[in-house]
């Protein structure tokens, strides 16, 4: 049975595990919203099951693009010191853990489910020059990880990763603390969930101390507000998404049942018969629409006619208005859902990007601090005395400008004295390529200087002497 001592590893296991369990329904809801598995639009009661497929076709996923739009513009190029110099160790760890691609996974999870995680630990196969294990960085999801922060300082106090081991058919959990980690195992499992009772878990081995000096689990929250839990990128427009689905369903219903001209007949006496199976009276329908059919009736005052078709333009205007509201509230560029935006200019695109770029800048601030913490943990894992909290995360320009525009801007900056290394940074080069570009330019300049003709001593002073006159200073007598 686990201990109930406050802030012991056993206590943290149950506290964080229950928090993980309580958060899961909300995460499932947000994930369904992101993937487009929205709740079916409501219909009147007593609707047959055959209409369910019709409902499913009415769903259009706008929340996925809303969450993905900032992800496309978030790309960390690497870590530099305060003066912009690249760090070779950080670059090596970055490439070792494939962060060029894995960083996107964390951003996408954070923007679609409110928070993502990275865990730093010892690499199982690689070592540093000092024989310490190289740092291993893993990307984690909020469905398996949770962190609790100190309310006074905001520092991470404890973390938990819990998952079900399909191979061993047991539940596993790891409690992360600033100075050690503790492993747990359980053979109990509810329907798709791990149990969080005190008697369900037992320790799996001894406590494992570490010398990282901080919690090895780093969270990447989605623009958290003070005193509030983080929410996904599309949290403020879920109601508009539901309204869009309902509007599409109404339009589809009108298009299916009322968009065609309905025909009617009055004054005709229909034949009736009794169904032998049910005993009900059935009206025979002699008027069947067909290109070659001619409808005729022997009644005296028979009239044929047709009703006007339902105008669907109102549904389409409502649909476009809801999309505009969704884009405005979520600060998503309108050209991602281009309707009548045809042949728009670069200035128009830049104007539509203003609020979106401001939002991306907020993500860069939060995620950049988290990446600095990750690199600091990597340095401690590798035994390198370096604090990356004073470093700077280099991000690619989120504006995604045309290369010709970038080159023109670089040329103008060069003319007023900007160094080549700064120009390379502005053009989106990684810290390593900036170093290569600057070193290559310096080598070319040195080589060019060595190929210049050697100037003879005193040549400059006698540059204006006339050999025939013998002196360059005499005057005509």
Written account of the structure:
With 477 residues, this protein is of the alpha+beta class. The longest helix is centred in the last third of the chain and has 29 residues. It contains 12 helices and 15 strands. Strands 4, 5, 6, 7, 8 and 9 form a 6-stranded antiparallel β-sheet that branches. The C terminus is likely disordered. Helix 6 runs antiparallel to helix 7 and helix 11 runs antiparallel to helix 12.
Write a brief structural summary:
The protein has 477 residues and is α+β, with helices and mostly antiparallel strands. 38% of the residues lie in helices and 17% in strands.
Backbone CA Rg: 35 Å
Distance between the termini: 120 Å
Summed up, the helix count is 12
Tell me, rounded to a whole number, the average pLDDT: 83
Structural class: alpha+beta
DSSP, total strands: 15
């Amino acid at each position: 049975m686990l201990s109930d001592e406050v802030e012991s590893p056993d206590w943290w296991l149950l506290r964080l595990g229950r928090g993980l369990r309580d958060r899961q329904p909300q995460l499932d809801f947000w994930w369904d919203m992101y993937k487009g598995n929205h709740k079916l639009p409501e219909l009147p009661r007593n609707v047959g099951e055959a209409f369910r497929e019709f409902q499913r076709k009415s769903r259009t996923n706008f929340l996925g693009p809303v969450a993905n739009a900032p992800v496309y513009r978030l790309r960390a190029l690497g870590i530099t010191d305060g003066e912009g110099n690249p760090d070779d160790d950080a670059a090596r760890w970055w490439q070792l853990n494939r962060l060029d691609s894995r960083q996107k996974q964390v951003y996408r999870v954070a923007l679609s489910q409110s928070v993502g995680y990275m865990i730093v630990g010892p690499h199982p196969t690689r070592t540093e020059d000092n024989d310490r294990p190289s740092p291993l960085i893993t990307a984690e999801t909020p469905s398996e990880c949770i962190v609790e922060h100190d309310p006074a300082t905001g520092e991470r106090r404890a973390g938990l990763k819990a998952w079900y081991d399909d191979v061993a058919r047991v539940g596993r959990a790891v409690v992360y603390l600033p100075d050690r980690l503790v492993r747990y195992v359980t053979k109990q499992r509810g329907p798709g969930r791990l149990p969080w009772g005190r008697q369900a878990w037992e320790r799996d081995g001894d406590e494992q101390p570490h010398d990282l000096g901080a919690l090895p689990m780093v969270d990447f929250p989605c623009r958290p507000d003070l005193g509030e839990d983080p929410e996904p990128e599309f949290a403020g427009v879920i109601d508009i998404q539901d309204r869009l689905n309902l509007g599409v369903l109404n339009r589809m219903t009108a298009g299916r049942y009322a968009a065609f001209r309905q025909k009617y007949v009055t004054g005709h006496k229909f034949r009736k018969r009794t169904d032998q199976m049910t005993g009900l009276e059935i009206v025979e329908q002699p008027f069947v629409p067909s290109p070659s059919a001619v409808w005729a009736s022997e009644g005296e005052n028979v009239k044929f006619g047709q009703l006007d078709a339902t105008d669907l333009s109102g549904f389409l205007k409502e649909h476009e208005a809801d999309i505009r509201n969704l884009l405005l509230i979520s600060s998503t560029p309108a050209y991602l859902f281009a309707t009548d935006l045809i042949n728009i200019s670069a200035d128009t695109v830049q104007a539509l990007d203003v609020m979106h770029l401001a939002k991306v800048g907020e993500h860069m601030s939060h995620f950049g601090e988290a990446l600095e913490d990750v690199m600091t943990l990597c340095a401690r894992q590798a035994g390198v005395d370096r604090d990356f909290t004073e470093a700077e995360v280099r991000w690619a320009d989120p504006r995604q400008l045309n290369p010709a525009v970038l080159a023109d801007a670089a040329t103008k900056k060069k003319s007023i004295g900007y160094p080549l290394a700064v120009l390379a940074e502005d053009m989106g080069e990684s810290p390593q390529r900036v170093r290569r570009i600057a070193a290559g330019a310096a080598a070319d300049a040195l080589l060019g200087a060595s190929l210049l003709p050697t100037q003879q001593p005193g040549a400059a002073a006698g540059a204006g002497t006339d050999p025939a006159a013998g002196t360059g200073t005499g005057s005509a007598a």
